[in-house]
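Subject: Interface between my chains keeps coming out wrong

I've been trying for a while to get a sensible model of this assembly. When I model each chain on its own everything looks fine, but I need the whole thing in one frame so I can look at the contacts. Pasting all components below, labels as-is. Any help appreciated, I'm running out of ideas.
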Amino acid sequence: MNATDETLGEMLAKNGFSRRGLLKFAIAMTTSLALPPSMAMAMAENLAAAKRQSVIWLSFQECTGCLETLLRSSAPTIAALIFDFISLDYQEALMAAAGSAAELTLRQAVAANKGKFLLAIDGSVPVADGGVYSLTGGKSNVSMLEEIAPDAAAILAIGTCAAYGGIPKAHPNPTGAVGVEDVITDKPIVNIPGCPPIPEVLSGVLVYFVSFGRLPDLDDKKRPLAYFGTTIHDQCYRRPFYDQGKFAKSFDDEGARQGWCLFELGCKGPTTHNACASIKWNDNTSFPIESGHGCLGCSEPDFWDQEGGFYTSLAGAAGPGWRNTGIAAAAGLAAGTAAAFTARRKAQEPKE
Amino acid sequence: MQNFNFLADDGLVDALLMELAGLLDTLISDHRPGAIDLLGLPLSAACLAALEQRLGHGEITATLTASGTSETRETGFAGIWWTTHQDEAGRIVAMLIEVAEIPEILRASQADMQQARRNLLDATNFTLARQTK
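Reply #2:
Try treating it as a single job with all components included. I did that and got this:
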């Protein structure tokens, strides 16, 4: 995974992609990044001439879900090749080296790409009690971050944990988990939140950085505006039902079956900024609301500790009728138990 | 699930046609191409269909097969092209109205032509080498 002098244009040509293919990719990326179409040609030219971008990826207090989702790419598209094209110089879960060899790799990668590499972080940074709750090679996450970040060109905080602390930061936050921006305040940081984040957003940010040598425009929470500029609600295909006042009242009522708005079931789409409703998941197959569940707001800070929980509506209504659901479930369980008991007793009765 | 058939917003279509007229003006006077990113606009399916109908079909349709299929066709207005790019899975990844003498993606690039020349020479040399054996 060492950097070479090969350009992206040369690498794509080797893999059978023409410049038209690269221009087409650039057109799609300008659409994705909400850039003017006229920038596609410049992006294609810059990408063709670009060299491998060094990325050093550190995993802190995390579940590996972010890395998992980013690795799940389909056919060898140019987007996948872009991921191949970055020089992933350090990633503990993916690299072959371990132990002291891995530590040496990290030191060498930082020294060789000083001031040029992108530092990708997934997972929150535990700072309580000197950061002892998450260590790599005996070194705390916070000390690793403070040691390596000054040599990075910029930092990509991948996933809600790295961006804002995420689930580890949820009350009562025993490890003192925080986001990267709470520790590093003097470096450009892009937050790519989501639990997990959308892979296309990371590829978009990488392509933008490789193409133009700078980070894309960000919102007030340091998220790329192109992907986080609107709410899930504004892009949601169920929005017309909201406008008409048609709401599902429980997860299995007629409204839910008709695909009505999930606002009253606690959907956080109106206050959540992300691109799930447009880019979707699993190769554009679906996203939570399309699968029948409201948005949890996972790309917003402190989403786990929202007042009222996931199923209380933003207007403060109680949400779905869990009590009735619970009674029905209990009644079903009782009926099932009684039936099983009767069946067993019958089975044990002596045959005539 | 209910299907809402939104009405086309003729005002929006008219505004886009006016913008295209402006872009065509720039192309004629300055030879500078332009484009409108249709996926970046809040257009309903009905609105998009109305726009496509108003622009009509011209004489040229070209299909590109590179990382999925793309189709670019001249509309009923010379110099205005409707281009749709699909990825390998058939999803639309970009939809543009381009205002150009010819859309950039149809041109053969210098790099591709140079590579083609090398390939041709290699093929010729291979044939010559085989014939002299």
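Reply #3:
Confirming on my end. The two ends of chain B are 71 Å apart (CA to CA).
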